[in-house]
Amino acid sequence: MATTILNHPLIDHKLTIMRNKETGTKEFRQNLDEIAMLMAYEVTKSLPLQNIEIVTPICPMTGKQLIRPVVLVPILRAGLGLVDGFKTIIPTAKVGHIGMSRNEETLQPEEYYAKFPSCLKEADVLVLDPMLATGGSACAAITNIKKRGAKNIKFACLVAAPEGIEVMEQKHPDVDLIVAALDEKLNEKGYIVPGLGDAGDRLFGTD
Ligand code: URA
């Protein structure tokens, strides 16, 4: 499986608006939503198809259809910001949710909420989180999604740190990783540099 860094001009333009600290909640959300649609196009590029016989108004033909259902899984809470854009492009997608938080004693990520559609095992599962920083919670979320039987998993994020990509490639080499932009590093507080700050806070207007 592979890591793809999109480096798409339209995404980079919109991402720069999101990164700007002067950008407010409304514009941040709107640009995230637009980027999510562009990312959905890229993330779904390799979904497998099967032949299907249909008849057009002119003649019979062999068409194509997706083999598997698509399940979106945002990691709470910032992942929620990518859901609408993906759903616009894949309106039949089911949506599961997973919430991860850090146990302050063990410092390990722990699941505090999970709910998945029954087709998870046979689906193409697209796990969504705008930021891949240390990779700790994303890796743990994917481990837990796999434990529930998911086999075909892709992870889509907007901004990644090299550290997060390395951890993900090591722990989940079978998971395709699609990243809109690769940033420089993590700072001592675990924020991506230059990044865009706390994606959840900026998306929901909390601070
Ligand atoms: N999560 C965020 O929202 N921002 C970062 O920079 C890192 C993790």
UniProtKB/TrEMBL annotation:
Pfam families: UPRTase (PF14681). Its cofactor is Mg(2+). GO terms for molecular function: GTP binding; magnesium ion binding; uracil phosphoribosyltransferase activity. Uracil binds at residues 192, 197-199. It comes from the Bacteria. 5-phospho-alpha-D-ribose 1-diphosphate binds at residues 77, 102, 129-137, 198. The keyword Magnesium applies. It catalyses: UMP + diphosphate = 5-phospho-alpha-D-ribose 1-diphosphate + uracil. The keyword Transferase applies. It is an enzyme of class 2 (transferase). Residues 6-206 form the Phosphoribosyltransferase domain. Keywords: Allosteric enzyme, Glycosyltransferase, GTP-binding, Magnesium, Nucleotide-binding, Transferase. Binds 1 Mg(2+) ion per subunit. The magnesium is bound as Mg-PRPP. GO terms for biological process: UMP salvage; uracil salvage. Its EC number is 2.4.2.9. GO terms for cellular component: cytoplasm. Pathway: Pyrimidine metabolism; UMP biosynthesis via salvage pathway; UMP from uracil: step 1/1. PANTHER family: ADENINE PHOSPHORIBOSYLTRANSFERASE, URACIL PHOSPHORIBOSYLTRANSFERASE, CHLOROPLASTIC. Belongs to the UPRTase family. Catalyzes the conversion of uracil and 5-phospho-alpha-D-ribose 1-diphosphate (PRPP) to UMP and diphosphate. This is Uracil phosphoribosyltransferase. The gene is upp.
